[in-house]
Amino acid sequence: MKFLLPLFLLFSLAQAQTSDLTSSLYETYDKYKEATLDKRRIKHSQLQPLIDAYRKHPDFRVNKVGESIEGRELSLVSIGKGDISVFLWSQMHGDEPTATQAIFDILNFLKSDDFKNEKRAILENCTLHFLPMLNPDGAEVFQRRNRLGIDVNRDALRLQSPEGQTLKRVRDSLEADFGFNLHDQSTYYNAERTEKPATISYLAPAYNYEKDINEVRANAMKVIVFMNNIIQKYAPGQVGRYNDDFEPRAFGDNIQKWGTSAILIESGGYPGDVEKQEIRKLNYVSILSALYTIAQGSYKDIPLERYNEIPENDRKLFDLKIVNATFPLLGKNYQIDLGINRLEVNKEGYNDFWYSSRVWDIGDLSTYYGYETLDATGYVIRPGKVYPTPVNNMAGLEGLDTFALLRAGYTYVRMQNIPKEKLSSPVALHIVGKNYKIPDLAMEVGVNPTFLLEKNGKVGYAVINGFLINLSEGKTGNFKNAMIYR
Ligand SMILES: [Zn+2]
To answer: What is residue 92's predicted lDDT score, i.e. its pLDDT?
Structure first.
């Protein structure tokens, strides 16, 4: 009779084999981080010198595999000589760059002379193919859709976009065993019924409406369980699992159907990580570890049911949640919670951004969470006033004592000469033009969140453009900018 190890022991073994590697990858990451890509708004032109270097490197093969609508070259960077074909593509949505950065980190790692044994294991068993930034025209203007205005991820059947055609053609030519479909998701996703952001979310897409699980999909699920265990170590509780309803037009679902184990990875939010550099690192560590377990075949022993134990994705986070504030309206007081989000507005050239925030929801928000939460019990929401002495210019504004003004109830400063090129106010006071009339404070979905929180006649907090400022501590917290109303 053959002795069989219990499955959970085999499973631990698969994870244990790579856990040393995972820790070393995490600790040595900075050495491989591609330093030229440190902001989310990256462009195709920044990638080309990096890709060119791999053209000249003897271990790598670089092939032009297509062009975007505006003629930007799509390149496939390949390495390895193993039988297992692994295809990784990123940024089919132009404003989802985190994994593109991680791909160049992974390439730097593969190019280096370190981790020889692990790399040999990967490259002798696998051939890796990377297609970074599938939608460069979208990336150019930091938008999801391509130049035609369509979502490439709904074009897997009709194949009108050259980007989608390229993805399909490369997948078919490689007959890839594994496909990593790399995206970013909203930072407002959380792991269901927890305040933890879904820093990473996974999906092994269904290939039919019945959501059947064949070997192809099962393998994707197992690798996801493996990566989830890694992320749990560095971002405990911060993983979500996407709903697996079949979407017949999406690439992930079709790639699964076409016989490639499709793994969707979505990079979400991480507290304080606006440019998503920690999340990028988690991509690097978990994807490289996954390549190692794929090379070893050790993922095969992972029990499938673990996949469904990953909490589902939900979308219940706000940037700022204020609970139990008192709002006076037409002579009566009401208790309200506020959900506030800070929206990014691209600057010209799409290289940078500023914030224009919104009240996103009002009422009982007890089923929601905040990256930052304030219990405003006992605080009354008051409108801010315009400071009676106008300033002449930006220097005049910066000469003011912001905290003293906020404590005195002022949230707006009139400016005689607002510089044309200025998009936002650098201090926690809105700039208003000579003739601008401040609207009455209305607490409505969609308004800019600007008000004071007063207790016993004293202003304790100011909310300026959705940023919470603690006036008793004199702290501006994570404040970035206020607005200009000309
Ligand atoms: Zn996406």
So the answer is: 98
User: How far, in whole angstroms, is CA 397 from its chain's centroid?
Assistant: 34
Burial level of 334, CB count in 10 A (0-12/13-18/19+)? middle
pTM above 0.90, yes or no: yes
Q: What is the per-residue pLDDT across 232-273, written as a single tens digit (0 to 9) for each?
A: 999 999 999 999 999 999 999 999 999 999 999 999 999 999
Q: How far is the CA of 27 from the centre of ligand 1 (A)?
A: 29
pLDDT per residue as tens digits for the range 115-173: 999 999 999 999 999 999 999 999 999 999 999 999 999 999 999 999 999 999 999 99
- Cα(104) to centroid(ligand 1), Å: 19
Of 362, 364, 308, 309, nearest in space to 340 by CA? 362
Strand order in the sheet with 385-391: 385-391, 410-415, 430-432, 484-485
Q: C-alpha dihedral over 212, 214, 217, 222, to 10 degrees?
A: 110
Cα(185) to ligand 1 centroid in Å equals 6
Task: Write down the pLDDT at residue 18.
Answer: 79
Each residue of 170-185: b (16+ CB within 10 Å) or e? Answer: bbeebebbbbbbbbbb
Question: Residue 193 Cα, ligand 1 centroid: separation in angstroms?
Answer: 23
Q: What is the DSSP string of 271-314?
A: TT-TT-HHHHHHHHHHHHHHHHHHHHTGGGGS-GGGGGGSPBEE
Report the alpha-carbon distance of residue 18 to residue 21 in Å, rounded. Answer: 5
**Stretches in the chain below the pLDDT threshold 50:** 1-2
Ligand 1 center to 151 CA (angstroms): 9
Q: At what angle do helices 277-296 and 116-125 cross, to 10 degrees?
A: 60
Residue 1 has what pLDDT? Answer: 43
Query: CB of 447 within 8 A of CB of 379?
Result: no
CA 419 remoteness from chain centre: 33
Instruction: Please enumerate in sequence order all residues whose Cβ is within 8 A of that of 252, keeping only pairs 6 or more positions apart, or say none.
Output: 153, 179, 181, 203, 205, 262, 264
What per-residue confidence (pLDDT) applies to 10?
A: 54
E strands, 185-331, in order: 190-191, 200-203, 239-241, 261-267, 313-314, 317-329
